[in-house]
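Incident log, support desk, overnight shift.

02:14 A customer reports that sequence design results differ from what the structure should imply. Their input is reproduced verbatim below. On-call engineer (initials T.W.) acknowledged and began investigating.
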């Protein structure tokens, strides 16, 4: 859930330290993090949740999609995810249909007042 809710990259999640300096996602017995352990644990989650075709990076995409669907602007989502430019984030722009609906509604609501400015 952490990666899904934050949109962080796997490497960022693996190197995350708590306030006391311990690596948060470390193997409980070895106190280390490695791709084999993470892959094993993710495999268990996928099996238990019946989501065999979902990889960890898809959770990052889901986070971006959720932010945009909730009206967070593209620039902010780009910064949140640490993208090098807004161009990278634009692949999610198709999800912003609500923004287009709001723009159309705004224009519709002012259509009746056209020509009345300054009178």
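02:41 Re-run completed on a clean worker. Output:
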């Amino acid at each position: 859930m952490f990666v899904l809710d934050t949109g962080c990259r796997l490497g960022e999640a693996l190197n995350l330290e708590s306030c006391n300096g311990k690596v948060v996602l470390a193997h409980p017995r070895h106190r280390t993090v490695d791709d084999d352990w993470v892959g094993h644990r993710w495999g268990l989650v996928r099996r238990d949740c019946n989501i065999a075709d979902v990889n960890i990076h898809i959770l990052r995409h889901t986070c971006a999609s959720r932010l945009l669907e909730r009206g967070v602007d593209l620039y902010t989502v780009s910064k949140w995810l640490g993208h090098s430019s807004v161009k990278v984030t634009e692949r999610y722009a198709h999800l912003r249909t609500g923004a287009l609906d709001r723009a159309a509604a705004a224009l519709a609501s002012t259509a009746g007042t056209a020509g009345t400015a300054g009178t």
